[in-house]
Design brief:
Strand content: 15-25%
Radius of gyration: 20 Å
Number of helices: 10
Distance between the termini: 12 Å
Helix content: 25-40%
CATH class of the largest domain: Alpha Beta
CATH topology of the largest domain: D-Maltodextrin-Binding Protein, domain 2
CATH architecture of the largest domain: 3-Layer(aba) Sandwich
Shape: globular
């Protein structure tokens, strides 16, 4: 078995590469959740490895309540897949009827150097290939995410962009992105985690456990985070929020004991921990604080906004109904974890 990267009960996310025990995994089966189950205990039971919990998370998101396992619910336990072979994309052409904008440095979701150019890129490709009344499409890359929404998409230099986190438009309808853009149905969701000092963990089973805590969040990272949007855990708990320009700054405050935890998405947190050499020092708490939906966006002033979004949403539904949606996600998750072990 490969070396585990986190000691003790909190070893959860950094080494999802294949282990010899994977050959004996109890997978591609249904599992009825029992009282006391969580994603980590189920992964340990079926894979012999708690660190594979995100495979179960992504396969069963619609059956989870705020990332919590509900006793009596039937979950599907997927087998890990080793190789990513992107689907053919005959409709994707240079001179196309529909243009999409995305960017890199957002693993495992989008990046020209990622397998299949990233999980969301491959899912969007597959959805557009399955869409009713399909049209040819092109994907362009701009790694400066701060330019995407304004001016590029707002000025309709491109038809649609992805992947973007949708604000809570019901709670904040005046938010600039809610006013100016339509959002597709979620492509995938990001689990938002609390990362803590391995020597100073704290129990987090409900929002009130955060009362009195000081939590750091990066203000912005490559322009695609939506950290300014209020979330329930921020409004329902008595927490002090500290901001830093970059994820590294938050982890420095955690190391110095100036904050109790760092809040960011699972993948950004993991990548930062590895890059900063903090594997033995920083661990995630086992319960996500929330999840953020990643969507395709289009300007509300776009004359074909309704028809383009219909294609995306109908294609995503067809992709899910076919079973290939989950297969694509599983392959990309395995590729991500194997690269950082």
């Amino acid at each position: 078995m490969h070396k585990l990267l986190f000691p003790g009960i909190l070893r959860v996310v950094l080494a999802l590469g294949f282990a010899p025990s994977a050959a004996f995994a109890i997978c591609n089966v249904d599992y009825v959740a029992k009282p006391g189950d969580n994603l980590f205990s189920i992964a340990e039971e079926h894979y012999g490895d708690r660190e594979r919990w995100s495979l179960i998370y992504y396969r069963n998101q619609r059956l989870l309540a705020a990332s919590t396992v509900i006793p009596g619910r039937t979950l599907f336990i997927p087998c890990p897949e080793e190789e990513i072979v992107p689907d053919a994309t005959p409709l994707r052409k240079v001179d196309a009827e529909m243009t999409l904008l995305t960017g890199g440095n957002f693993g495992p979701f989008s990046g020209q150097d990622l397998p299949g150019q990233g999980m969301v890129t491959e899912l969007v490709n597959a959805a557009l290939e399955l869409a009713p009344s399909p049209v040819s499409y092109a994907v362009s890359w701009e790694d400066d995410w701060s330019q995407h929404l304004f001016p590029m998409l707002d000025d309709k230099q491109f038809d649609m962009g992805f992947p973007w986190i949708k604000p809570d438009c019901e709670a904040d309808p005046a938010h600039e992105r809610c006013v100016r853009f339509h959002f597709s149905d979620p492509v995938v969701s990001l689990p938002m985690m609390l990362f803590v000092d391995a020597e100073r963990p704290f129990a987090f089973t409900e929002t009130s456990d955060l009362n009195g805590k000081t939590i750091c969040r990066p203000v912005s990272f490559s322009g695609h985070n939506l950290d300014e949007t209020k979330r329930s855990w921020m409004t329902e708990a008595d927490v002090t929020i500290v901001n830093q320009p970059q994820p590294q700054g938050c982890f420095a405050l955690l190391h110095d004991g100036d904050v109790d935890a760092v809040a960011m998405n699972l993948f950004l947190g993991v990548e930062t921990i590895v890059a900063e050499g903090l594997r033995e020092q920083v661990v995630p708490l086992e319960r996500p604080i929330s999840q953020e939906d990643l969507s395709v966006v289009i300007s509300k002033r776009h004359w074909r906004g309704t028809s383009h979004l219909y294609r995306v949403n109908a294609g995503l539904k067809a992709l899910r109904d076919s079973g290939r949606f989950e297969q694509i996600m599983t392959r990309h998750l395995e590729a991500f974890w194997s690269q950082i072990q």
